Amino acid sequence: MSNKKRPLILVSNDDGITAKGIRVLVEVMCELGEVVVVAPDSPQSGMGHAITIHSPLKLFPSPVFSDLGVEAYHSSGTPADCIKLAKHEVLAERKPDIVVSGINHGSNTSVSVLYSGTMSAAMEAAMSGLNAIGFSLCDYGHDADFSHVRALVKKITSEALSKGLPEATVMNVNFPAAREEPILGVKICRQAQAAWHESVEKREDPYGRPYYWLSGKFINPDKGEDTDEWAIAHNYASIVPCEFDLTAHHAIGVLNEKWEL
Amino acid sequence: MSNKKRPLILVSNDDGITAKGIRVLVEVMCELGEVVVVAPDSPQSGMGHAITIHSPLKLFPSPVFSDLGVEAYHSSGTPADCIKLAKHEVLAERKPDIVVSGINHGSNTSVSVLYSGTMSAAMEAAMSGLNAIGFSLCDYGHDADFSHVRALVKKITSEALSKGLPEATVMNVNFPAAREEPILGVKICRQAQAAWHESVEKREDPYGRPYYWLSGKFINPDKGEDTDEWAIAHNYASIVPCEFDLTAHHAIGVLNEKWEL
Question: Which residue segments constitute the domains of chain B, with CATH numbers given?
Fold first, then answer.
């Protein structure tokens, strides 16, 4: 053992503290450093970057990871709330060396990053200057197989810890679902220019009143071989470095030229 | 009157269908075209880009704008949900020429765009290829004065309708709160590199259990005169063209060079 201080790793997610994906992530992180978990007490998928400002939040110690000797808390809040509570209450006196979120049960490639609670936890951390990575597995199953991604989760987090992240970015990591062959490697990618083509299903409740279910199909017309979608389809892990400056800098000149205001 | 077909304008917001800001927006839009409203039935501030995928949504006709002869619906969903319901249920047979969201009671400058329900409605529309603008007034008051922004809301929307928006962008428009002097003009800006420095206040409920309130202070170290924050502080309206490709393109090369994966 080296004498170097073990890194402090904050773990969160959006599937809730009892999900299989966060257990795998916590187990892997225990090999790299001291782990503290602050995660939602129930699933928060699709919560985007929601925060809770008009109602109070609950935060309680959780025994979920006591078998691993890991300090853990569950909160009534969203993933972004969990990061805020972690920073200002649980870790008020300490600064995590990295924040990891996931492993999400389901893909967060392409524009799904905008709807992703997993990524919003990572984004929230990055926005306050912390190193942060969101991990997702492209398998929605409650009991999805995560065994093929453990080594890569460890490797990617190790690289981030030792070499750092580009300033003002957050990593969106996606893994292909388990196949017979192992994952072929890791590609640094851009976000595919794809979209969800949603559908709305109208039903009637027992009292004759309408209600609606949202669902959708992911359509990707972007055939670029440098996209996260291409990587996943070809059995590579994808890493998209994301930024939270949403400014379309190229559009500023266009608007100044065309619009008369 | 010209014979040109009047544009179809879809209006939503995040403060809920009865907020003052959406009434002002609907009134102004009625001067420009045919208006349809689909908005949340209650306030949804801070909802980020949340969507509702694990529970059904309600959608009912609303009499709120009947005095203006405007077709309106309120939904139990988030702002992004409202846009999906509008596209696939209310306007299933028609395509809006533009989607406008707001006028938000409160600022959505800088990184607040990521937490903003107002902007998530606009973003959702833009992601499906529609022209979209989010409007916010930097005044949180329930009964804020919107009279000084009416002319500019009309002008900006008219320009967007007649000249179009740069591809794959959505406009984040903020107005300064009413002062004695009128707004000095409109600046096309970049998002200020600022952050919320939140605080967490711990209290105890009547049963002795802890609960927490999130609040925060906006800190802007970015002194650039091309930012939305600068514009608002100097009594200009700001327009930030935003994109939903979050890829930090400059970071791809850096990661390929530095990380060994």
Answer: 8-193+223-246 (3.40.1210.10)
